[in-house]
Amino acid sequence: MLKFDNLQLEFPVIGAALSGYSDAPMRKISRQCGAEFTLCEVFLDQFVIHVSQGNKSRFYLAVDGSDHPTGAQLMGSDPEMFVTAAKRLVDFGFDLIDLNFACPVKKVLGRCRGGYLMTDPQTALEIVARVRETIPASIPLTIKLRKGFDDSQQSQDRFFEIIDGAFERGIAAATVHGRTVLQRYTGESDWDFIAQAKRHIGNRVLLGSGDLFTAETVVRRMRETGIDGVALARGAIGNPWLFNQVRAALAGQAVPALPTLLEQYEVILQHYDLAETLYGAHRSASDMRKFGVYYAKLHPEETSVRDAFVRSKNRNDWLNVLKIWYHDYHHEHET
């Protein structure tokens, strides 16, 4: 079980917020493959405020009945704008609000957003307090942190100041990625630090994140650290089947093998259809290329398949890649 205040989940593994990836089609595919709860891609507060006034809101902010429960992750620098954006996300139907104090992208840091707030506990905690006071009590509030801005003792002290203060102000849970902001995605995620953070907060809810690419790794990290759950991020892009693999592993069952190429074919085609329905034929092929690069990682001919997806310019191109590299390849090599 994983509990965010009144939101109780049976599966302690969530789909992380992934900028540019965890849109409605990816979330639906993840749910079909075993995810119970997913976060949408990271939203800038200004974006939420302005896009919610136009037709594009259906691309990013619409939550239909099949997408529950789902959460929205919010990023910015101004407490007042956080409040306005959070209220709008609740109005659009999101079941949880997550505050991003972790993003390591340089242009984000330069505008005092994301991971920059780990250097400014006062502002970070003001944002937490203002948002918690504003959104309904029925909507859980959570935060996303990294282990610090850098590896200094001062940075670590600020981490604990933020996480303690955030729980005191009413958050339901925190997710910690085991790298510093300055590390971005280099080096290994520090799961010893995540275990330390869990010991520090006691029975309050903590999720871990970083370098979770197999079901066996997820189970091992949860058992070693005592954390309450994990957020699957890059490991779930192009491999939504990881959710069901983790379900089996946590239940002590044999981990299912990767799907056959024909099974992958069906899911990838469904993902494309969902994207085309949402965004339209004019942009679905280009938007899906980034997913094709990740789906290709599970194919025996990764480089050739990746290049074929990248060259695809329309639906016919995409269907041709699936036919040649998944349908026909399966019958030539796996039967």
What does this 3D model show about the protein?
This protein is an alpha/beta fold. The chain contains 14 helices and eleven strands. β9 (173-177), α8 and β10 (205-209) form a beta-alpha-beta unit. The longest helix has 19 residues, at 261-279. The radius of gyration is 20 Å and the shape is globular. The relative contact order is 0.11.
CATH superfamily of the largest domain: Aldolase class I
Whole-number radius of gyration? 20 Å
- Count every helix, treating DSSP H or I runs of 4 or more residues as helices: 14
Q: Name the CATH architecture of the largest domain.
A: Alpha-Beta Barrel
Tell me about the largest β-sheet.
9 strands, parallel
Query: What is the share of helical residues?
Result: 40-55%
Number of DSSP-assigned strands = 11
> What is the terminal-to-terminal distance?
40 Å
Strand content: 5-15%
Shape: globular
Class derived from helix and strand content: alpha/beta
CATH class of the largest domain: Alpha Beta
What CATH calls the topology of the largest domain is TIM Barrel
The unreliable regions are: none
- The helix-strand sequence is EEEHEEHHEHEHHEHEHEHEHHHHH
Mean pLDDT: 93
Number of domains: 2
Strand and helix layout:
Blueprint: E1 2-4, E2 7-9, E3 13-15, H1 24-32, E4 38-39, E5 43-44, H2 45-51, H3 57-60, E6 70-75, H4 79-91, E7 96-100, H5 106-110, H6 121-134, E8 141-146, H7 153-168, E9 173-177, H8 191-201, E10 205-209, H9 215-225, E11 229-232, H10 242-250, H11 261-279, H12 281-295, H13 302-311, H14 315-333
Parallel strand pairs: 3-11, 4-6, 5-6, 6-7, 7-8, 8-9, 9-10, 10-11
Antiparallel strand pairs: 1-2
Helix pairs in contact: 1-11, 2-4, 4-6, 6-7, 9-10, 11-12, 11-14, 12-13, 13-14
